[in-house]
């Protein structure tokens, strides 16, 4: 079994030798990812694509899916009571006041979740691979690969008439991670200057400093960060990649005695210290 993305694994099996079995453990509740209290929770969409390499490596010959919701015991009991009350026959008055649901909007409660067949087999599945894990996960041709920099929204797949419809939940806004913006100022200045670090790496930071302060890139020999604890560390790609947008620093550009090279130091600021005085 090989992990090919944060949300996908792949494995090989021979159906003529033995049946295949996969155990999937859901270690969270469906309400953990709800932005609002009282929301019923987001279902886990589980999809299995089966490929026959002798036929095609890019298009599966079968695609099945199901949706799973996980509740704690007390919530499950309340859900069962509410479900029984909704399905119990009642008089016309109660029927008129009850909110009507379209046919097929909800599945009956069951101990096992059946996998439904999806008619669209040509659209590749969606994989999530953040930029920092590009080297860890090799590219897979038969899937869409969406990185953390993408702003795409996963569009709900149109499936067969057995697919259950549910209202689209509100999702938090996604921001691109292929760039970082930090605020810097010299000690004698009161106004910060934004540095757009593209890509979020040492080269991206050096290029941003060159554009703002007209320093030749080839003459920058050192790039350091002074933490609030007082220690000084050399800046590397991983450190820049994990910066938060709009972090604030005091920038010091020191030249050598002969002026042939420069070292750049970023002094980390507290949030209170980073606020510029009002004009």
UniProtKB/TrEMBL annotation:
Residues 1-129 form the Grh/CP2 DB domain. InterPro entries: CP2 (IPR007604), GRHL1/CP2_C (IPR057520), TF_CP2-like (IPR040167). It is found in: Nucleus. GO terms for molecular function: DNA-binding transcription activator activity, RNA polymerase II-specific; RNA polymerase II cis-regulatory region sequence-specific DNA binding. Keywords: DNA-binding, Nucleus, Transcription, Transcription regulation. Residues 83-105 are annotated as: Disordered. Its main location: nucleus. It holds the Pfam family CP2. The keyword Membrane does not apply. GO terms for cellular component: nucleus. This is CP2 domain-containing protein. It comes from Soboliphyme baturini.
């Amino acid at each position: 079994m090989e992990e090919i993305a944060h949300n996908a694994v792949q494995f090989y099996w021979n159906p003529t030798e033995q049946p295949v079995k996969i155990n999937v453990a859901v270690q969270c509740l469906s309400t953990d990812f709800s932005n609002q209290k009282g929301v019923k929770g987001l279902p886990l969409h589980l999809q299995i694509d089966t490929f026959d390499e002798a036929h095609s490596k890019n298009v599966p010959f079968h695609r099945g899916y199901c949706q799973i919701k996980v509740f704690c015991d007390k919530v499950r009991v309340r859900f069962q009571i509410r479900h029984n009350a909704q399905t119990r026959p009642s008089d016309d008055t109660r029927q008129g006041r009850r909110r009507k649901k379209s046919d097929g909007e909800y599945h009956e409660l069951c101990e096992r979740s059946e996998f439904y067949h999806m008619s669209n087999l040509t659209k590749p599945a969606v994989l999530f691979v953040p930029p920092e894990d590009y080297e860890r996960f090799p590219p897979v041709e038969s899937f869409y690969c969406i990185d953390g920099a993408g702003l795409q929204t996963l569009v709900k797949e149109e499936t067969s008439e057995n697919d259950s419809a549910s209202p689209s939940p509100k999702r938090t806004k996604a921001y691109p991670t292929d760039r970082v913006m930090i605020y810097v100022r010299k000690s004698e200045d009161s106004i910060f200057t934004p540095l757009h670090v593209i890509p979020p790496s040492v080269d991206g930071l050096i290029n941003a400093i060159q554009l703002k302060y007209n320093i030749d890139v080839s003459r920058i020999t050192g790039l350091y960060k002074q933490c609030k604890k007082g220690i000084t560390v050399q800046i590397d790609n991983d450190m820049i990649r994990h910066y938060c947008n709009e972090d604030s620093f005091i920038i010091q550009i020191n030249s050598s005695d002969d002026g042939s090279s420069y070292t750049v130091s970023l002094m980390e600021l507290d949030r209170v210290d980073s606020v510029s005085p009002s004009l």
